[in-house]
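Researcher: For the record, we're logging two predictions in this thread. I'll number them. Prediction 1 follows.
Model: Prediction 1, sequence and structure:
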Amino acid sequence: MNKEILLTSEAYGGGVKTHIDSIMKYSNHSIKMVVFGEDDINSRDSNIVFVGKGRKKIFKFLTGDTLKLSSIVKKRKVEIIHAHSTFCGIQAIILKCIFPHLKIIYTPHAYYSQRPNLSYFKRRIILFLEKMIVKSSFKIIHVSESEESHAINNKILDDYQKKSHIIYNGVKKPKSRNGDILSKKIRIGSLSRLNEQKNPMRFLELAKAIQEKDSKHNYEFYYGGDGPLKENMQKFIQDNSMEKYCFLLGHIAYENIEEDFFDKIDIYMSTAFYEGMPYSVVEALSYKKPIILSDVIGHKELYFNNGLIFKLEDQNSSIASDIISILEKRGISTLSENSYFHFINRFEIEKNISLIDEVYKGE
């Protein structure tokens, strides 16, 4: 019988949820999932247990919630725990002190130390904790080459040739690929939580700059998702009279992602400050969407002559000119085919989950 794997996560949403759902659905192992989520989510899956309220209450998360998790480890005789985030990694270290036999597999989904604007003191503490997690872990699964490079360059990971596995996030082929269906307007979209990491205000700034550069006003902009920056985005759109060409779509349920989002756009743009390996961009490739991405960890491997990658420090007017130029010179159809070719070669789900299974087997 295959060994049972215990997955832990701070939350059950966004890209982490997609990643975990994929493992649970396609893995050949028996999977038990424990979520320390901030939100109460009703799940009918008996293999998912919701515990605690996430790391907003950090002391409780690392004490009481860890004790709850230890009872699950003891009861189910867990041998392998797969921690999805830095804070779950710290929790796994505590568990390993209680259960020395426990093997830890760690997937950071973007190291916390990748975050911009961390103070020197806070960054040193985070790097120390991440080094502890990696040292205590049996294997590390990085979701991009650039994520692994961050770990090596910051000396989080020393023996990377033995411990580190690069396994890209994967998705299924969509039943229909609508990349060839274009409207009279060129529709640029993004889909993410509206928070600081995803940098959605920069998306709006670029939308404004593109509209000002394009004399024919051929562009429209769509942003799907919800989060703490929603009111700021609404105010920016109103203050800059962008209501006729820039639209906030609100929360989009994953099961409706094709109809409610990808059918509405021709090009996908992400302005994120940092990433692990964003599922929304991988899905954009599967739907044959050209991409416009900020030049950050987690985006680099998604670019394959299929759009544009830009530096966040560049001026909005310069980036806007480059976007308009690349679309006019290369054409959306050619860029679309390049995106889909890249998806087929690197991001199909079955292949990627089989690689995770090999890690679970200790291969």
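Researcher: Logged. Prediction 2.
Model: Prediction 2, sequence and structure:
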Amino acid sequence: MMEQRNFKSIGRPISLLGFGLMRLPLLSADAKDIDGDAVNRMVDRAVEAGVNYFDTAWVYHEGRSETFAGEALSRHPREKYCLATKMPSWVLESAGDVERIFNEQLKKCRVEYFDFYLMHNLGAERYDLALKYNVYEFLRKKKEEGQIRHLGFSMHDAPEQLLRLVNAHEWDFAQIQLNYLDWETLKAKEMYDILSGRGIPIVIMEPVRGGVLASLTPSAEDILKDADAKASLASWAIRYAASLPGVMTVLSGMSNYEQLEDNIKTMSNFRPLSDDERSVLEKAAIAYRASGAIPCTSCRYCMDCPSGVDIPRVFAVYNHYRVLMTGRPNFAEMVFGTNYQALTDGERAHNCVSCGQCVEHCPQGIDIPGHLREITELAAGM
């Protein structure tokens, strides 16, 4: 049976596994080319298994995620699912855009109300834009009118910004990035403590860090496999986030049916992590960090690059190389060369002109131009 969490302020049980509609199955490399049949099949299976929290956003899949969410979920009774979407302050050009986007989202998602609605990725600059256009006030009104049941926000910023947000407004829930790699390094623990200390239900995003924690270095993987040979690497990460008190749901951006089934298995008859298992994860995290991989989650907020570089794919190729380098250096170089050549010339790292636009949008604060220069040098030397 799917694990559920109950919060008095929410008023209904929420499945501990949330379906993130950010990395849907594709028919090609184009993020807009979503495989609708596969999405329907996965959503049907999720609902059947007891998943009732589905998370989308205006910008996911270059504007297509909400449409596919509406098509897939509208085939089920409305009481069977909770739908969450978000208002992106960075695309607003006027106060009128807030209402226009909200109304379009209702149509795209084929609903009359949103169970959960978030102000999207409220870093300091984007929050200032939201203040400029009175986004919070508009959404509070929509909540009073019944078109929003629960109002919250998501963020990828520092604890100081989180404090600014929770002190400024009344929130029903909040969504933060949290996983066993980021617990200390990106101060996820501090942000978790802020929210849990105030009794604000927490939605966890990036529990598997964009798939990174499902594909570890050989040394890190060996540590987890020695502890439990049958458990998937992703299940360790999912359980880590789900074991924390105060967590309402853990989002997983599932790209195929196998990932869905693995997550359903993990969250059904849920078993929280033991202290010994937490120690195992700490050792695995230390081993993984030693690889020098770039902490990219493939969220694609950095795209589109004005120079044409496919930043997430370039980083994915490089990270695969770094993982292989820890055990098979000659093979790693061969694989890197093959995978890098599979990118078109226009998509490769050497096209970067260090304009900095990507850095402004990166939730992880990655020095993207610096890493692209390193990868350019690596490719040139092979």
